Amino acid sequence: MPKGATWIRDYTTAFNPENNAVATKSSGNLTYDYFRKQGILKKTNVIFATPGSVIFGVKPIRDTLMKVIGRYGINFKPFYAPIKIDAEHKVAYFKHVAPDENKCVLNEDNGIAEEFTEGNIIKIPFDMLHLAPPQAAPKFVRESSLVNETGWLDVDTNSLQHNRYTNIFGLGDVAGLPTAKTGAAVRKQVPVVVDHLSLLIAQNRIGTRSYNGYSSCTLVTG
Ligand SMILES: Cc1cc2nc3c(=O)[nH]c(=O)nc-3n(C[C@H](O)[C@H](O)[C@H](O)COP(=O)(O)OP(=O)(O)OC[C@H]3O[C@@H](n4cnc5c(N)ncnc54)[C@H](O)[C@@H]3O)c2cc1C
């Protein structure tokens, strides 16, 4: 990170709602904290751009995060869906995806040199970009017959047993489960899979243990 740079920006965006929802936010907060400790805050803009309407889906956490955003002076940009990165010229392109009724309140933010162009496309220059790319299962899984229509391992939400191949179980990031992909979720999935697999091998039946969708993650605020 260049010390004393006149203008450093950080765009943290989520392309995919299944991503770990807090990792990108933690990095934005830590970046800010670093700038503060280096004494270059006044020469720095930190921008958090997201295609979503809010910073976090769960209200109590959202309220706390908005206080952090306010305390740090981070530019929060909802409805900014990343569509293109011009790495050579260091420009990020976003499409403004707000519902129609919100579009009339869109104003250019001169503080961060953003520029609105035709088709609700927004150009923002940056010095440093941090983003979470679209996530996918490994190629050999994605291109196998084991996946569901979204490309993740096709398992039952509760038993974690494959929906078509009963001798296969899936857990972790590769599993097509309607929950956030985290290590904490894996911790709760492992005992379920171990129980079912052991019983399947020993008694040709699965047990009654059930994964309830639990997931959690620490969120670092600096
Ligand atoms: C920046 C970031 C921060 C995070 N913070 C947290 C956190 O604070 N708390 C939390 O609970 N979770 C966190 N997570 C999520 C957590 O890291 C993942 O959910 C977890 O690691 C998933 O474990 P996994 O074993 O399913 O997959 P992985 O950890 O991805 O393991 C899959 C392994 O398979 C290997 N592999 C891939 N293809 C092949 C192949 N063809 N042959 C052999 N091996 C192969 C890969 O190299 C990899 O080692 C974070 C994730 C990120 C990216």
Summarize the helices and strands and which ones pair or pack:
Layout: E1 8-14, H1 23-38, E2 44-49, H2 59-72, E3 75-77, E4 80-86, E5 91-96, H3 100-103, E6 115-117, E7 121-125, E8 128-132, H4 139-142, H5 183-203
Parallel strand pairs: 1-2, 1-8, 2-3
Antiparallel strand pairs: 4-5, 5-7, 6-7
This protein binds flavin-adenine dinucleotide.
Provide an overview of this structure.
Helices cover 27% and strands 19% of the residues. It starts with 7 loop residues before the first strand and ends in a 19-residue tail after the last helix. It has five helices and eight strands, in the order E-H-E-H-E-E-E-H-E-E-E-H-H. With 222 residues, it is an alpha/beta fold. The structure holds flavin-adenine dinucleotide (FAD). Flavin-adenine dinucleotide (FAD) binds at residues 20, 23, 138, 140, 172-174, 181-184, 186, 217-218.
